[in-house]
Task: structure prediction
Amino acid sequence: MLFKKNQLTPEQQLQKAVPLPTGAVDKRFSALFSQVGQPGKPTKEMLSFGLSCASDAISIDLSAVSSRIKAGENYIDIYPGEHYKLLAAIIKKRAPMVVVELGTHLGYSALCMKPFMPPGGHIHTFDIIAWNQFADTILKPEDFNEGLTQHTDDLTKWEDVQQHRALLESADIIFLDALKDGKQEYNFLENFAKLNFKPACLFIFDDIRLWNMIALWYNIDKPKLDMTSFGHWSGTGLVWWT
Ligand SMILES: C[S@@+](CC[C@H](N)C(=O)[O-])C[C@H]1O[C@@H](n2cnc3c(N)ncnc32)[C@H](O)[C@@H]1O
Result:
């Protein structure tokens, strides 16, 4: 064979070349950059909102959800470092009637938000894989009886976005927690740029400190706040979609 294809991802190749100097279970390359020069910055209102949610998150109890975990680490009760208590606190404070989540996976985030929704509120969670296809899902059929719906449409596709246009435009919170492959989030945002979201709809971006997400986060030119120290270790960002 003339050449052997490198099976490692760019991140894995980097980690091999420059081993990261910690023994953390999961460690990634990221970057530092100043606020000066960055498009979009926090408003005073955002800062107060974020700090107040971070403070409330300390006393949020998610043990009823974490007790459902079937396998692996209990990420749900880790705070800060994981985002579940912060998500719950945001829902409690903002009392959204409509939440759209991109990325259901095992149902952790949907179930952590659900108990804190106001009466009549509804979470619409999207995934291209149906929840019951994951062996370790903590979702149960009865979770969908009230206040929670899963859609398996793909909002990177404009025709699927059009189908859910009214729902998206009625959302109070959009939580983006899908692939983070450096391409998909751009597809979501390109589609969303054509919609008329409610004034100050709150977008929550997961993993904003990951290499694939840095440029996307940095370039968002809207009121925004990096909540990473009070959310997910890999990055949590809030954006008012004005
Ligand atoms: C990081 S997981 C979500 C984790 C979940 N929000 C939580 O905190 O428990 C990412 C999920 O995004 C899903 N996904 C991939 N492409 C998607 C798309 N186009 N729309 C919605 N979800 C997608 C994957 O199938 C996977 O289940």
